Amino acid sequence: MSEFTSQETPQQAIAPDAKVTLHFAIKLEDGQVVDSNFEGNPATFVVGDGQLLDGFENSLLGMQAGDEAVIDILPEQGFGMANPNNMQRLPRSQFGDMVLEPGLVVSFADAANGELPGVIAEFDENKVTVDFNHPLAGKKLKFEVKIIAVE
Q1: Contact (Cβ atoms closer than 8 angstroms) between residue 118 and residue 75
Q2: Which terminal Cβ of the chain has fewer Cβ within 10 Å, N or C?
Q3: What residues does the PPIase FKBP-type domain cover (predicted)?
């Protein structure tokens, strides 16, 4: 137990509907940074507002301003498992003269005329296999956080 005493009110812990300001980094298991705001301004969100996936939010519950952590996020808690039904084989002719290569992100129109990105998985002269899974589906992630404020 610390000898330090403070006149301040006890710190609020992260709970549903709390407004949280934090620095974060999302990394792959090998340490590759997918997204980070440690070099810039912190992000602010309200727990439960849908800005963060539930698995990321749940990992923050109980933390307070000043807390830092590196949290393992399993695919089921993050972007889900890759769904084989999200792999679509399309006619090569649908791509016109486009130069294709594996990993290329192509934008498609979904049923509501919204934008749906797909990643070229493989192709030949007749068919193109496009992966419509989230790029982080099936990946174990490291969620590095530093809590700045909880209101």
Answers
A1: no
A2: N
A3: 17-91
**Residues pairing with 33 in the sheet:** 27
**CA 16/CA 75 separation, integer angstroms:** 22
pLDDT tens digits along 105-116: 999 988 888 898
Domains within the chain, CATH numbers bracketed: 19-79+137-150 (3.10.50.40), 84-131 (2.40.10.330)
Secondary structure (3-state) at 86: helix
Dihedral, CA atoms, 33, 139, 117, 126, nearest 10 degrees?
A: 120
Q: Provide the token pair at 148.
A: 């700045």
Contact criterion met (CB below 8 Å) for 80 and 135: no
For 89-99, the pLDDT digits (tens) are 999 999 999 99
pLDDT tens-place string over residues 25-71 = 999 999 999 999 999 999 999 999 999 999 999 999 999 999 999 99
3-state secondary structure of 32: coil
**65, amino acid identity:** A
What does the alpha-carbon distance between residue 42 and residue 148 come to, in Å, rounded to a whole number?
Answer: 8
Rounded to whole angstroms, how far apart are CA atoms 107 and 115? 6
